[in-house]
Amino acid sequence: MNGLNVLTEEERRHGFRLLFDGSTLNGWAATKHPEGWLVRDGLLVCKGESDGYLHTTGTFENFVLRLEYRTAPKTNSGIFFRWTDLADPVHTGLEMQIWDTYDQTEMAKNSSGALYDLVAPSVNAVRPAGEWNEATVECDGSLVRLTLNGTVVVEADIDRWTEPGRNPDGTANKFKYAWRDRPRRGHIGLQDHGGYIEFRNVKVAER
Hints:
InterPro entries: AL/BT2_dom. Residues 15-204 form the 3-keto-alpha-glucoside-1,2-lyase/3-keto-2-hydroxy-glucal hydratase domain. This is DUF1080 domain-containing protein. It comes from Paenibacillus flagellatus. The structure is a single chain. The protein is mainly beta. The chain is built from 2 helices and 13 strands, in the order αβββββββαββββββ. Strands 1, 3, 4, 6, 9, 10, 11 and 13 form an 8-stranded antiparallel beta sheet that branches. A 5-stranded antiparallel beta sheet has the order 2-5-12-7-8. Strand 10 and strand 11 (151-157) form a beta hairpin. The longest helix has 5 residues, at 9-13.
C-alpha cells in the first residue's frame, strides 16, 4: 500500500491534510448505522447494507477536497459538503453525486458528478463500476467547482439559487431552502445509500 493515504510534497506545500488516516475512523462519526462503515486494507469501506451517512466531526467553509472512490455496479452514493444540520443532510448539505452512470448518454442532475438536483455534469466523466475515480470539490465563497477524473464537470454560483425548490433556469428541485441563504460552513459527509463503495486518499486544504 505504498503511497496510499499519504500527502505529496506539493500537497503539503498547499496546506492539504488527510481526513482519513487509512487505519481508523478518527475524525469521523456516523449519523446512524455505524456498523455500516469499516476500514480495511487502507480503504474506508461503506458496506452498503443499511443507510445513513459518515461525516467529519469538524466543519469546513472554503476548501479543496480530494478523494478517490470505486463502487460496485449500480451503487448510488454522494459526497456531501457544507452540511449544517446532521439530522437533515439532504436539505442542508450540497452533494456531488456518485452513481454508476457510465453508460448514460445524456447527463442529468443526478448523473455521476452532478451537483445533485441543481446542476447536471457537463460531460460523462465517470469510469465503469469497479474502477477508481478521482473527485475534487472546491468551495470558494458562493462558487462551487466539481472535478471528476480530471474534467471540470460543474461550475456553479450558489448565490443564483434564490428561491426554495427552484433552480435559476426555472426548473424545480427538491430543496426546501434557498441555497443563497444557507450557512457556508458545514461538515463533509459520505453517503450510505445501500450500495457498496470504497474510498481512499481523502484530503482537504482549507482556504
